[in-house]
Request: fold
Amino acid sequence: MSKIRVLLVDDEEDYVRAMAERMDMRDLQSQVALSGEEALEALENDPPGVIVLDLRMPGMQGMEVLERVRREHPHIQVIILTGHGGEKEEAEARRLGAFEYIQKPADTGHLVRTIQGAWRRSLQVARELLKESREEFDRSMTAAALAEGGMQAEAAAMMDRRMVREEEPSAAGVLKVLLVDDEEDWVRTMAERMEMRDVGSGVALNGQEALAILEGDVPDVMVLDLKMPGIGGLEVLERVRKDYPEVQVIILTGHGSDAEEVEARRLGAFAYLTKPVDINHLMEKVREAGSARDGGD
Reply:
């Protein structure tokens, strides 16, 4: 199995080279760039699958590098690793398509796991782009052959059908998750992070809103906070398991206790997690819950 190739971009040379050594010790193949300009040059010569990118650097800043990479190399996944960013920078990085946003100092194990997740996403996107390219080539060649044979109407109809399919989003096979939490900034950010991982995400800011959504659009998995104004999480859990037994519920709370965990599991929670949660761990549980739903467990 080939090693994951990572480009580490940071102007702190001692730090980034030490990080490269740690990455190499964990069977990653790392390359170092000390500026944004150097990073873009490296992409033209030998593009990696994952970039770990600092935000504050002399010359070209990390946000500009991120934007260029996502536009010119859409399969390459970018992890922001910075010691100077805040909530505003994180929101902007995610808007531009960053796979993850991590603050320094970063735990090496956590960073490696994030890189591995980004690499899997990079391979998936590359396969999708290749498939789209092949399908587009086949459609174009077929349309050209039809037109050459005097079948212009059929060729035009074929291209029109292609445009309709491209304009209509397909939800087939997409795991649907409803995130229920009264911390609006947090829950909307989490929804965006899940969308980046090809999971369809909806948001409810309280228990009443969640139950109302279920009446018209039942998700595969619900990620549910416990402490919210109005209907508490345990009551929502109980009603969901009674009225929508196919929906798997993951409790994610920052205020829970051992007694509440026992009660949540008694009521049928698929898993019980506490904040702060690692996004990769949460996604693992969400996908496990989705598989359990498909299997009828």
Observations:
- The chain has three domains: 4-121, 132-167, 176-294.
- The longest helix spans residues 108-148.
